[in-house]
Amino acid sequence: MTEAMIRKKPGMASVKDMPLLQDGPPPGGFAPVRYARRISNTGPSAMAIFLTVSGAFAWGMYQVGQGNKIRRFVSEWKKYLDYEADVMKDVPGWKVGENVYNSGRWMPPATGELRPDVW
């Protein structure tokens, strides 16, 4: 069997015969532990805070404006559908709000000119 060096002693030895190996502090000791409360005296400037708040406010107002546009469009669309229902109430088979271009009937192209040869 090969000889092994364990803690600078050859071969297998009793634990009691081995020299002590103990951890200790580095020479000069450890650095002091910093435990004091540290509050930074710097932070975002007043201009940065102002611009951030202004940007958030502007974005929120933009969203409100978009919602108002959609609400206004829906209101106008309902008025349009009510008007369409009133105008077309005597037409049999008319469905209010339905797309007139997908009716299944052929219609001549609407070019704005009268072409009796197409009819």
UniProtKB/TrEMBL annotation:
InterPro entries: GRIM-19. It is a single-pass membrane protein. Pfam families: GRIM-19. This is NADH dehydrogenase [ubiquinone] 1 alpha subcomplex subunit 13. Complex I functions in the transfer of electrons from NADH to the respiratory chain. Accessory subunit of the mitochondrial membrane respiratory chain NADH dehydrogenase (Complex I), that is believed not to be involved in catalysis. The chain crosses the membrane at residues 44-62. It is found in: Mitochondrion inner membrane. It comes from Brassica campestris. The keyword Electron transport applies. Belongs to the complex I NDUFA13 subunit family. It comes from the Eukaryota. Keywords: Electron transport, Membrane, Mitochondrion, Mitochondrion inner membrane, Respiratory chain, Transmembrane, Transmembrane helix, Transport. One of its GO terms (cellular component) is mitochondrial inner membrane.
